[in-house]
Amino acid sequence: xxxxxxxxxxxxxxxxxxxxxxxxxxxxxxxxxxxxxxxxxxxxxxxxxxxxxxxxxxxxxxxxxxxxxxxxxxxxxxxxxxxxxxxxxxxxxxxxxxxxxxxxxxxxxxxxxxxxxxxxxxxxxxxxxxxxxxxxxxxxxxxxxxxxxxxxxxxxxxxxxxxxxxxxxxxxxxxxxxxxxxxxxxxxxxxxxxxxxxxxxxxxxxxxxxxxxxxxxxxxxxxxxxxxxxxxxxxxxxxxxxxxxxxxxxxxxxxxxxxxx
Length: 261
Hints:
The chain is of the alpha+beta class and 261 residues long. It has helices at residues 19-22, 27-34, 73-85, 150-155, 158-166, 204-216, and strands spanning 2-9, 12-16, 45-50, 57-63, 93-98, 101-108, 113-119, 122-129, 132-138, 142-147, 176-184, 187-194, 198-200, 224-228, 231-236, 245-250, 252-259.
């Protein structure tokens, strides 16, 4: 049996496993089986806090389809709270090694909220797909952001629109897809199709990509609240080519248990 802790950040849910319990296991297969919402516990992905020579710890992340991801903002907050609560790190300020580099996390309110240094957004030329204009943003992982009218965002069939963009030839490594409505100068409404997981209730890196795209396009100003199906996060970015972006949001426990896998 394998112990797990289930956590979520604004509804984006994860199964966290201790490094000692899963070291040497086939983690992609574990993710596929454990994250299945009918035959497993159910989650958008798995997280493992592993030792690091460069930071306080290293985040191993696999999506529910078993694929790895360079970065997961909501997962990073959950991992940080998990590590602090179990004394894997010495303080409320910690550094985490990810596939997109090292990120600093500062825990607040006993870990329920945290502020994450997400790095400098990167931009590539926009593309036209299916009659929509997508801004290409990198937060260490790829994102395609489309700004739409409010009713279109709410009524969109993500199971059709999401995969068409995720698997478009212009994205050889696939992409996360964000459909966004600008509610005001400091507020966005977003729905997300996540690479390797499908429709999720929230995405931390996706929220950052959407906010950065809105600020760059002159549609919003920092700070930006991003309203997701599972909750809200806040993004701060000054908008310069070398300015670091920050995200703040929740990390909550759901349950603990043991898997018969």
